[in-house]
């Protein structure tokens, strides 16, 4: 037996709004949805999948507590991603910068209060 992949599940106050965010702002495409109206859905970009679930009670509790769960995305060109997300209207919480742990990253906030960290490794110059 071996593990093959991990897919984060993001809780949503409004699944429709979250789908719009992940497709229009983050550039993912919708893979599936379940229910009528939808209560569960999946989005994908470049082999990276995120599942979304309608859970207004959890999102409300997170917001009341000031909690910001995180989704971390590694990309191959973080500067390009940063400009793309800004142009698409993303809420930038932390601008693109080099971090002491060897990552160049920025942080976005989705409509449900999740922090989306987007990064690439910093390659040391020879």
How would you describe the overall organization of this protein?
- With 126 residues, this protein is of the alpha/beta class.
- The chain has a single domain, classed as 2,3-Dihydroxybiphenyl 1,2-Dioxygenase, domain 1 (Roll).
- It is 25% helix and 40% strand.
- It contains three helices and eight strands; from the N terminus they run βαβββαβαβββ.
- The longest helix has 11 residues.
- The chain is globular.
- This is Glyoxalase-like domain protein.
- InterPro entries: Glyas_Bleomycin-R_OHBP_Dase (IPR029068), Glyas_Fos-R_dOase_dom (IPR004360), VOC_core (IPR037523).
Q: Summed up, what is this model?
A:
This protein is of the alpha/beta class and 126 residues long. It has helices at residues 15-25, 56-65, 78-87; strands at 9-12, 29-34, 40-45, 48-54, 70-74, 91-98, 103-109, 115-121. The longest helix has 11 residues, at 15-25.
- Quote the average pLDDT: 94
The CATH fourth-level homologous superfamily: 2,3-Dihydroxybiphenyl 1,2-Dioxygenase, domain 1
Strand content: 35-45%
* Alpha-carbon Rg, integer: 15 Å
Q: What profile does the largest beta sheet have?
A: 4 strands, mixed
Topology order in helix (H) and strand (E) letters: EHEEEHEHEEE
CATH architecture classification: Roll
Helix tally? 3
The name CATH uses for the topology is 2,3-Dihydroxybiphenyl 1,2-Dioxygenase, domain 1
Strand arrangement within the widest β-sheet reads 1-4-3-2
Number of domains: 1
The CATH class? Alpha Beta
Helix proportion = 10-25%
The shape, in one word, is globular
* Uncertain regions spanning at least 5 consecutive residues: none
**DSSP E strands, number:** 8
Domain VOC: 4-121
Pfam family, one: Glyoxalase
Protein name: Glyoxalase-like domain protein
Organism: Tautonia plasticadhaerens
